[in-house]
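Each field is listed here:
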Amino acid sequence: MDFRVLPSGTYRLLNLKTPACLLDQDGDLVRLDLSIAEGRIVAETGPCPEIDMGGAMVFPAFVDMHTHLDKGHIWPRAANPDGTFGGALASVGADRVANWSAADVAARMEFSLRCAYAHGTRAIRTHLDSLAPQDEISFPVFAEMRDRWAGRIELQGACLVPIDLVDAGGPFARTAEIVAASGGVLGCVTYPQPDLKRRLRAFFDHAVRHELDTDFHVDETGDPSVATLRAIAEVVLETGFTGRVTVGHCCSLAVQEEAEAEKTLDLVARAGLDVVSLPMCNMYLQDRVAGRTPRWRGVTLVHEMAARGINVSFASDNTRDPFYAYGDLDMLEVMREATRIAHLDHAGAAWPRAFVSNPAAACGVAPPSLAPGAPADLVITRARSWSELFARPQADRIVLRAGRQIDRTLPDYAELDGLMS
């Protein structure tokens, strides 16, 4: 239950706190009052109800820029047998062939979006497995969901295919056409290939032809010899590609020799790549060896990236599927866990942008704002400090959309039981 019931219509929230960086100010948390009228934050109002929020922390509604809505919630019927990356690939592949009809994908997407909305998310980019014929199944479902959820969650869809299937023609050309027709994002998974740069150039040629931004799964491994991130940055610089390029995971960078990693980071900065780290999924999968304690957390070099001015974000990734058995598309959970896993505390006051402003910029959605004129799409927690925020899951938060307090009742997992037999 929400920790407080707010009025509707015109009202004023007094004594809130928000990260200073979200107001482009210096410092940690700053106090502010917010006046709300006709669904927006306004400079001032006439006489109206005033509510003292007691120092509660407020955030603009979140952008979750890397998810897999098509895979979500299949764990009960397709569990990962050993928790490894290979186990995840095998389980998802088998389940996709056996079960991913349009009706199945739609039901699980709808369930996931209801969760994200209840937690306070306003925009989501989802990757969609796009090996034919799945691209012809999932993208129409995605387009239907985007229309159905318009005004609540802004949706973007990125295709997901392995780099060894990317070429100038062939099936990938058809997938690129499907993505373009749906207004999506061109994506793929990179790993070492003898002709990797040729395939990357073909990939960017498709993106240029269809005027698409791009989004890669990159180096999701603890093998330090895997370094396709550098190749992506080099090809972007060589081709002069001007669309946005997002690279996700980049795990192997953290286990490479320092000098090699720094060379790659310099290239990433020069190429202007956006980076998204997926700390919960990567901690779950990476360095998992039976009978052996993991030696690292799976996350990429986010501190070194931020120091170079690289746009770094964090996101949910998988939800209750073989790649991550847990999660609920809750960006406050992502913020809490990323802070712990990547030691974002004691690391400067700008990190809140990585959950709000940075992903919005990477995805090209409306920037978050707490200024007059902005939509009153807010997440308000009972917590009054970072320690309070991260100590508890904030299950009693308030979510406002267009100034109205929404019903945050989460869907019951039992609703999916019919899909799990």
The domain at 62-363 is CATH 3.20.20.140 (TIM Barrel). Residues 56 and 314 are 23 Å apart (CA to CA). DSSP finds twelve helices and 15 strands in the chain.
